[in-house]
Design goal:
Layout (H helix, E strand, L loop, with lengths): L6 H21 L5 H16 L3 H14 L14 H11 L6 E5 L5 H10 L2 E5 L3 H14 L3 E4 L12 E4 L6 H11 L7 E5 L8 E11 L2 E10 L1
Parallel strand pairs: 1-2, 1-4, 2-3, 4-5
Antiparallel strand pairs: 5-7, 6-7
């Protein structure tokens, strides 16, 4: 969730948080107490934490969203009601497998798996976050496993991919796009902030959304 020392910015961040929570309740419902506890813990960690990774996220998001330094942001998770819309565009069902690239604390993959019944692979290079996500999946019996890198995933066996790459710069996005070319024809990819591009991909949908860091967009595309 976004954070700043300026009162106006804090008011906007609070209003966004209230809107997101309301939309999540109305769209998805409070259907999993264990997942809610995980979400609350992750939110508290994002607001109160100060890891080097968070500071890098803050610097990158400041540059991309405002074009200037000095405004502090903290990473937030894609809201559940947005993930539910994304899951529909990805056409996931209990027989399918998806990959979440840059899974962070792991909540997005857990929500998508619970909403659709699909199996997931959460890719997260930061060991502590990956291990925490795996502990959560095992405790809640969510059908999601973890991987350190996308190269460790059999993308040919995946029907879809999700990339919340708000602060991923162009070179890294290009590497991910190259790896995802291994998806089978007809597989779908959803991204936040930037669309996946190139001759291999056909954009199917683009939609604005209120996210913890402000107004942004998510995209759905299909592998040609």
């Amino acid at each position: 969730m976004a954070a700043s020392h300026e009162p106006t910015f804090l008011l906007r961040a609070t209003a966004r948080a209230f809107w997101i929570a309301s939309a999540d309740v109305l769209s998805v419902g409070l259907w999993h107490p264990g997942l809610l506890a995980w979400r609350a813990e992750a939110a508290a960690r994002s607001v109160l934490g100060g890891s080097g990774r968070q500071r890098r996220f803050e610097a990158a998001l400041t540059a991309r969203q405002t074009g200037q330094a000095g405004v502090s942001f903290v990473q937030g998770d894609t809201p559940w009601h947005v993930l539910r819309k994304i899951a529909r565009w990805l056409r996931l069902g209990p027989q399918d497998t998806f990959v979440d690239v840059g899974a962070g604390h792991g909540l997005a993959a857990a929500v998508m798996a619970l909403v659709t019944g699909a199996k997931g692979v959460a890719v997260e290079p930061v060991a502590a976050m990956r291990e925490g996500a795996l502990t959560g999946y095992q405790a809640l019996r969510v059908p999601v496993t973890t991987a350190e890198s996308l190269e460790q995933v059999d993308v040919a066996g995946c029907k879809a991919a999700f990339l919340g790459w708000t602060c991923v710069e162009a070179p890294a996005r290009a590497r991910m796009e190259e790896a995802l070319r291994g998806l089978p024809s007809g597989a779908r990819v959803a991204t936040v902030t930037d669309a996946i591009t190139g001759p291999c991909w056909q954009t199917l949908h683009s939609e604005p959304a209120t996210l913890p860091w402000g107004r942004d967009r998510w995209f759905a595309a299909e592998r040609r």
